[in-house]
């Protein structure tokens, strides 16, 4: 039975404070099922998924096995999918994924584990898929199916167009899905084009299904699957026909649900400063009228009559939200010295401030807040740019190859070789051979990763030079979780946290700029945010932290909505150009092949557009018209510590 708040939702959806809380609940349900079945002397049949989403569930299941004696002897599993063409020992095969993350860590008998075969001959694929479905039927069907959701709305690898009654089969992967997998495969060109997936029909036959989604990037597809009429363009929406389906999502993934986005159209609202601001800015956008021109009739016509009665009239509401929004705009992100700061986002003193900008990887600082960094510096703040990770996993082989061949050629061309020493050129030649010989998916050796780290360090140096930040102000933390991991397999350690704590204690910043609170918790930004949270906990009793303001910025494509913005830093056309030029320095992050469709832009084009869009949004609600704006939200330390 759904509540008034959920009236627009066609699938029962629970929003959890974070992914760990949701994953614990799912793991708990699975554990109960396993134990119940075991008591009855029966097997529990689980449908399993791969990807980042179910990782916290698997971690919890492993913990329950190790610490609470949960046995998997009576468990039979069927995985949703497998890439076609990958051997089971390929590091990105779902076989590897499942054995590394779960099966090898629990006591499940090997012959009770099933995954579609990615290596079956093309002529045998149809029969092999049919026997996969047959095997599921033979054990009595799936008792509990867990799912993630792709940005195309896929479940398993059932891409848009998959039918409700589709069975296990060979499918070709959507372009967006392949792009999302490009990082895992160290380049889009290496991502398989085909996969074998359980069909939508196979999934719908499971007794219970739980779909999980974390992070803001999933908010759009979650909203469509939950609220729109089911159609084959969004396979996850077809779950609406299932007898026992639930979505477990975290707060960022719930952002676009009607009950969260526009709660006043759903039921009674406890109006506070934040929701009032949200409603008035929404109304201004909806009516395409500047805030100060909104009338009582607009409020009434668009479902905000209650707001009007409680805190109206329109005139007062308009003035109040107009002023709040106006006061978010500042050209002095580090605070303006000797000025009245009662209506400014950042206090005037102390001045200059010590500012710490934390970027998950080199380039995010420039792309998301390059203009602000430049301003902070030119207005006298002491700016430290700290890169949590080296970013070497995102450097293509082609770039490492180019640099190494340059090194080895320089040696021979310029006759630099010193016969007695083991020269740099020789090292380069050895590494070049290694790059040439390695398969496209073999993980890089340590020296190759070091070369790639150097690529990004140098780019960061060049980019910050454009922003007038000296090399001495850059810190490369090279956190071990990244250096020892690969995508979808990052594990934060105490050492990571210690490095971050040491940096915080060294800089004692008055401002920290950070990101990642809304990202998938398994992503580089997500792990970075988790570590910052832990580090802040550790320093929370240090005297200096009481004087630190926390400013959160968001990555490309995840911009802050207007009502969340506490500080908007306008950029002049020249400053925007400066930032774009700085982002050009990240040559390794450019696309490695020509753009075939204009919808997919280079990252610098996206940042340019994003900052212009924020400025246009301010303009539309009646603020001054700027070329571009970088936006930040102020977060309280207690809020971070409790999240
Ligand atoms: C994986 C699978 C996919 C993923 C989806 C989300 O077995 O079936 O549907 O669940 O692509 O991937 P992540 O969790 O990595 O965001």
Write a structural description.
With 643 residues, the chain is an alpha/beta fold. The protein contains 22 helices and 17 strands. A seven-stranded parallel sheet has the order 1-10-9-6-2-3-5, sandwiched between helices. Strand 9, helix 7 and strand 10 form a beta-alpha-beta unit. Helix 9 crosses helix 12 and helix 16 packs antiparallel against helix 20. About 1% of the residues have low confidence. The site of fructose -6-phosphate (F6R) has 14 residues, from loops.
Task: Name the descriptors.
22 helices; 17 strands; alpha/beta; binds fructose -6-phosphate
Quick description:
With 643 residues, the protein is an alpha/beta fold. It has helices spanning 19-39, 55-68, 94-101, 125-138, 175-181, 200-204, 219-227, 258-261, 273-287, 296-301, 305-311, 314-326, 364-378, 397-413, 424-437, 446-466, 480-483, 494-507, 524-539, 573-584, 603-620, 637-642; strands at residues 12-16, 44-48, 75-79, 81-83, 113-114, 144-147, 169-172, 194-197, 208-213, 245-250, 354-359, 382-387, 474-476, 511-514, 549-552, 567-571, 628-635.
Helices and strands in order, then pairings?
Elements: E1 12-16, H1 19-39, E2 44-48, H2 55-68, E3 75-79, E4 81-83, H3 94-101, E5 113-114, H4 125-138, E6 144-147, E7 169-172, H5 175-181, E8 194-197, H6 200-204, E9 208-213, H7 219-227, E10 245-250, H8 258-261, H9 273-287, H10 296-301, H11 305-311, H12 314-326, E11 354-359, H13 364-378, E12 382-387, H14 397-413, H15 424-437, H16 446-466, E13 474-476, H17 480-483, H18 494-507, E14 511-514, H19 524-539, E15 549-552, E16 567-571, H20 573-584, H21 603-620, E17 628-635, H22 637-642
Parallel strand pairs: 1-10, 2-3, 2-6, 3-5, 6-9, 9-10, 11-12, 11-14, 12-13, 14-15
Antiparallel strand pairs: 4-8, 7-8, 15-17, 16-17
Helix pairs in contact: 1-2, 9-12, 13-20, 14-15, 16-20, 18-19, 20-21
The protein binds fructose -6-phosphate (F6R).
Residues 49-53, 80-81, 148-150, 154-157 line the site of fructose -6-phosphate.
């Amino acid at each position: 039975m759904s509540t008034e708040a959920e009236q627009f939702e066609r699938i029962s959806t629970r929003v959890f404070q974070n992914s760990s809380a949701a994953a614990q609940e799912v793991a708990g349900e699975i554990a109960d099922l396993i134990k119940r079945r075991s008591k009855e002397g029966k097997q529990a049949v689980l449908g399993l998924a791969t990807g980042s989403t179910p990782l916290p569930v698997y971690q919890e299941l492993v913990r329950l096995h190790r610490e609470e004696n949960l046995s998997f002897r009576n468990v039979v599993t069927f995985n949703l999918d497998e890439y076609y063409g990958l051997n089971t020992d390929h590091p990105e095969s779902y076989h590897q994924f499942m054995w590394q993350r779960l099966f090898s860590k629990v006591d499940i008998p090997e012959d009770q584990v099933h995954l579609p075969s990615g290596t079956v001959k093309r002529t045998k694929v149809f029969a092999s898929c049919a026997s996969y479905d047959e095997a599921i039927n033979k054990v009595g069907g799936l008792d509990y199916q867990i799912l993630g959701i792709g940005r195309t709305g896929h479940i398993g690898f059932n891409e848009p167009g998959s039918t409700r009654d589709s069975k296990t089969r060979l499918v070709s992967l959507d372009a967006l899905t392949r792009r999302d997998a490009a990082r895992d495969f160290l380049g889009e060109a290496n991502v398989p084009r085909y996969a074998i997936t359980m069909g939508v029909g196979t999934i719908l036959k499971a007794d219970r299904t739980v779909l999980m989604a974390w992070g803001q990037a999933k908010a759009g597809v979650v909203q469509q699957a939950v609220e729109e009429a089911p159609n084959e363009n969004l396979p996850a929406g077809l779950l609406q026909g299932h007898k026992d389906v639930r979505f477990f999502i975290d707060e960022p993934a719930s952002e676009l649900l009607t009950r969260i986005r526009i709660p006043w159209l759903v039921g009674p609202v406890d109006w506070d400063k934040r929701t009032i601001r949200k409603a008035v800015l929404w109304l201004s956008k909806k009516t395409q009228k500047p805030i100060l021109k909104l009338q009582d009739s607009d409020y009434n016509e668009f479902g905000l009559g209650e707001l009007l009665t409680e805190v109206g009239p329109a005139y007062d509401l308009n003035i109040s939200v107009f002023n709040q929004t106006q006061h978010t705009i500042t050209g002095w992100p580090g605070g303006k010295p000797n000025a009245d700061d009662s209506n400014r986002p950042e206090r005037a003193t102390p001045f200059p401030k010590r500012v710490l900008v934390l970027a998950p990887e080199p380039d995010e600082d420039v792309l998301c807040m390059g203009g602000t960094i430049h301003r902070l510096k030119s207005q006298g703040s002491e700016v430290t740019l700290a890169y949590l990770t080296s970013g070497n996993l995102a450097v293509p082989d082609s770039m490492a190859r180019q640099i190494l061949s340059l090194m080895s050629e320089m040696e021979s061309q310029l006759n630099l070789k010193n016969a007695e020493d083991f020269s740099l050129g020789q090292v380069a030649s050895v590494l070049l051979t290694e790059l040439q010989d390695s398969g496209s998916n073999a993980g890089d050796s340590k020296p190759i990763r070091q070369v790639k780290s150097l690529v990004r360090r140098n780019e960061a140096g060049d980019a910050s030079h454009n922003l007038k930040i000296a090399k001495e102000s850059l810190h490369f933390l090279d956190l071990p979780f990244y250096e020892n991991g690969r995508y979808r397999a990052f594990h934060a350690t105490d050492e990571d946290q210690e490095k971050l704590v040491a940096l915080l204690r060294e800089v004692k910043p008055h401002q920290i700029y950070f990101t990642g609170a809304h990202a998938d918790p398994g992503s580089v930004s997500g792990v970075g945010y988790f570590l910052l949270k832990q580090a802040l906990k550790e320093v929370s009793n240090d005297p200096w932290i009481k004087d630190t303001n926390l400013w959160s910025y968001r990555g490309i494509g995840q911009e802050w909505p207007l009502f969340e913005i506490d500080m908007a830093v306008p950029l002049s056309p020249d400053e925007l150009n400066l930032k774009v030029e700085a982002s050009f320095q990240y040559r390794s992050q450019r696309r490695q092949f020509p753009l075939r469709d204009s919808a997919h832009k280079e990252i610098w084009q996206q940042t340019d557009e994003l900052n212009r869009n924020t400025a246009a949004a301010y303009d539309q609600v009646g603020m001054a018209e700027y070329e571009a704006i970088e936006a930040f939200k102020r977060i309280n330390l207690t809020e971070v510590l409790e999240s």
